[in-house]
Amino acid sequence: MDASTDGPAAQKPLEGVYAFSSPSASITLHQGLLGGIPKADRHAGVVELNFARGPYLIWRIEGDRDDLYGPVEPFTLSFQRNGQAWRSEAIRSEIDWGILNHAEYSTSQPLGRVIAHWVNLPEIHGNEVLTATSPGGSRSWWTGRFSFSAAGWDITIDRRQDFSDIIAAAKREHVYAITHVMELRRSDGKPFSADAAVVVLENIRVATSFALGRWAAPMLPVGFSEAGTVHWESWSSPIVEPLQKTGYPVLYQYSYKDVSKFLTTALEALEIDGTNGPLRFQMISAVLSNQGGFTEQRISTAFTAIENLAWVVLVLRGHVSQQDFESRAWTGTRKLGKLLSLAKISPTLHGLGLPALESFAGRGRSTRNGPAALVKVRNCLVHPKSPRDEVYHIPGLMTDAWLLSRCYLNMLVLYAVGYDGEMQVQLPMDGWLGETRLVPWATVRPLPDQGAS
């Protein structure tokens, strides 16, 4: 429990449409007759969100049936749910089960609120106290509500009471579970469409994943009228990292001030940017630059986003003309250096704890230039002047280049959205000095415990 006394601000937790389950337990979405299976009659079956190897939607037939036969090919699965007909494109993986990519029901009527279920969101420190009474009659309190307003939406996210038990399980094995329930409402109290809800849910997913440095997602949204009638429901299985994986968080998750400030500015910026705009691409690239694969791939992913940022910030915002930007005078080093200058990010490598990159930049210089060294590494990888361009002769060079490119990208995304709070700069600087400042608004924080988060 995060609090031991009740107070006037204590609220009852939001109630999800789908109950909190144990780690990695499947969530039953529908149980009843399934139709449309090739060369088979309607059969009793189940549609569920399966967490065995990561979240994905599956359908399966219950019981043994001799008449289940036919080709393993895509088909349209049909079933009745709450008196409404659902149809979804499905794949038959085996004779009696398969996969769904997406299923949705909508009356096209306006919504008053949406309830969504977060999978594998970490313990973000809340700003409001929740209270609940157990079946045995004991009462408990915890600071489990995180609420804020952004881009015309009131957003409330409640953490499940037994979250610490879920984390304990995560330390033993990679798990997936519903960890939070979220409610969306328009700040002006007006109704809204399911299409508008889809956009803001995707923006929240992208912005939150960027802040965490790994994928988390709100899933299984259900839209209600003010009278409580279900007018919209959507099933899908977006990418989510297992709870055990920490990622490389950009923000300190226990700072409500920083997290709420970032999400507010980021959601407003993403709304202005529009669906599939460059900011979304930049944030997604930042998350992907933390993921698996070769280090060279991570560098290339980060650099592609940095180049996209350079075009948007320097050209589209009017700092440099398109003609100058595309001229030979504006080299990759100059573009990156100009970006860092606008964001007030120091270009020096000194003190960042990247000795291999400093050595590559050249010995004997009092201030080694980060953009020049980084662009040189990137060019050697992408545009080698010979089949054996020297980039592997310095041990640790690829890792140093990845760390700095990822750091630059994170900082530049924060600059692009107008964020002015604190961030975690994940570079191996000696002692993680709290007074070390790379930009005026980014104080290096000590990293939290690298266990499950």
Brief digest:
By secondary structure, the protein is α+β, with helices and mostly antiparallel strands. It has ten helices and 16 strands.
Mean pLDDT across the residues is 85
Percentage of residues in strands: 15-25%
Number of helices: 10
What percentage of residues falls in helices of 4 or more residues? 25-40%
Question: Distance N terminus to C terminus?
Answer: 18 Å
- Class inferred from helices and paired strands: alpha+beta
Order of helices and strands: EEEEEEEEEEEHEHEEHHHHHHHHEE
Q: Biggest sheet, open or closed, and with what strands and sense?
A: 8 strands, antiparallel
Shape: globular
Describe the structure.
With 453 residues, the chain is an alpha+beta fold. The chain is 30% helix and 24% strand. The protein contains 10 helices and 16 strands. The strands form 3 sheets. It has an 8-stranded antiparallel β-sheet, with helices on one face. The protein has a 6-stranded antiparallel β-sheet with strand order 1-2-3-6-5-4, with no helix packed on it. Strand 9 and strand 10 form a beta hairpin. The protein is globular. The protein starts with 26 loop residues before the first strand and ends in a 10-residue tail after the last strand. 39% of the residues are buried.
